[in-house]
Amino acid sequence: MDQPCVKYHGQTYRKHGKYYQSDDTTLRERRLLHRAVWIDHFGPIPEDHHIHHRDGDGLNNQIGNLELVLYVVFVDTVD
Questions:
Q1: 10: which residues sit within 8 A by CB, 6+ positions away?
Q2: Dihedrals φ, ψ of 45, to 5°?
Q3: End-to-end alpha carbon distance in the chain
Q4: What is the pLDDT of residues 42-72, one digit of tens each?
Q5: Strand partners, 49
Q6: 65: left (phi > 0), else alpha (psi -120 to 50), else beta?
Q7: CA-CA distance, 45 to 28, in Å (whole number)?
Q8: What is the pLDDT of residues 12-26, one digit of tens each?
Q9: CA-based R_g, the chain, Å
Q10: What pTM does this model have?
């Protein structure tokens, strides 16, 4: 059975765990769909930051559902 997938800017992203991910390893920072969406709207993601899904749904990559958070803050709220 095929995994659910979405197309974004000509690239195919397949559901992998709780996120959409590309099989193209050359994408680096853009390999996860939510990171690609963020970068397209706001530019590079600072090294010590994470893109968080506000509603907790890793498949909801609407720009309004994404927020940039300091990695330490993100880790503290997950525990």
A1: none
A2: -90, 125
A3: 34
A4: 999 999 999 999 999 999 999 999 999 998 8
A5: 70
A6: alpha
A7: 12
A8: 999 999 999 999 989
A9: 13
A10: 0.85
